[in-house]
Design a protein that fits this description.
about 290 residues; alpha/beta; D-Maltodextrin-Binding Protein, domain 2; 2 domains; 6-stranded mixed sheet; 5-stranded mixed sheet; PhnD; ABC transporter, substrate-binding protein (Cluster 12, methionine/phosphonates)
Length: about 290
């Protein structure tokens, strides 16, 4: 019996230490904002780079959609994440999510929403696809759903009434594959994801092409939960902004198809807020 009590005590201390160590890890939540982000080596390198440069024990958490990403950040307010402009705008209002930094794409913190269809199709713009099948990445995606919703609404058309069927593919990559397989007629695709996909699959251009684009829109932000201290946010922001000045950082940026990061205030996303308000106002008027 005298040996059992010390063993229990030691086991208890070890368990407490293990939990303490686990609590020191900080989730870095990511969904489909970065090309092939789920399990990609480039994303693992990116998070490892942040971990080494900031001394914050980041652990990658993959979310299958933006709603899950938002929920994880809500339930773990000390976490960081990489999200989309539209979810950020909603989560900043509802959950006090904090803006950390915005990546640069083609030298600017901006991107477009592209309307993609098969080359064989005769339609010239999204409005022409009345009664056809539309595929989108996520109902909270700025480029995949919000942008085409506004695009049609500005022409007096509601997206839910324009198509015979709308398919939620789960990612921009899946939307492109749906077009290639003939499962849908048209898609709204993130410009960044489209370019990265074409790099890997150049033959796609013999089957699909861009017929319209809208934007530019504020690009996909790195964010932090409401309880993350400003000192920690500044540390991460500084590392992100200096990535383009660091040899290893440059290589990682090249691998994910970005040019760097910049500091922006929440007002930078006002165009996205205006788009959400426009859609919400129209929805309310239909009730």
């Amino acid at each position: 019996m005298k040996y059992i009590i010390p063993f229990i005590l030691l086991f208890s201390l070890y368990t407490q230490h293990a939990f303490a160590e686990a609590e020191k890890s900080t989730p870095f939540v990511i969904s489909g904002v970065v090309s092939d982000s789920s399990g990609s080596a480039s994303i693992k390198q990116f998070v490892r780079y942040l971990r080494n440069k900031t001394n914050i024990n980041f652990e990658i958490y993959y979310a299958s959609n933006y709603s899950k990403l938002s929920r994880v950040l809500r339930d773990n307010p000390h976490a960081f994440g990489w999200t989309c402009g539209a979810p950020y705008v909603e989560d900043e209002k509802q959950d006090q999510q904090q803006l950390v930094s915005v990546p640069l794409f083609k030298g600017q913190p901006l991107y477009h929403s592209l309307i993609i269809t098969a080359i064989k199709n005769s339609e010239k713009k999204l409005l022409d696809f009345k009664g056809k099948i539309f595929v989108y990445s996520d109902p909270r995606s700025n480029s995949g759903y919000l942008a085409p919703s506004v695009q049609l609404l500005e022409q007096g058309v509601e997206i839910n009434q324009h198509f015979s069927l709308m398919i939620n593919s789960g990612s921009h990559k899946n939307s492109i594959v749906s077009l290639l397989n003939g499962l849908a007629d048209v898609a709204a695709i993130d410009e960044y994801i489209w370019i990265e996909y074409i790099k890997e699959h150049p033959d796609t251009l013999s089957e699909l092409h861009e017929i319209e684009r809208t934007g530019p829109y504020p690009f996909i932000p790195v964010v932090a939960g409401k309880d993350v201290a400003q000192t920690r946010i500044r540390k991460v922001r500084e590392v992100l902004i200096n990535m383009s000045n660091d040899r290893q950082g440059k290589l990682i940026l090249k691998n994910i198809g970005m040019d760097g990061f910049v500091n922006k205030t929440t007002s930078f996303y006002q165009p996205v807020r205006d788009m959400i308000n426009m859609v919400d106002k129209n929805t309310d008027s239909q009730r």
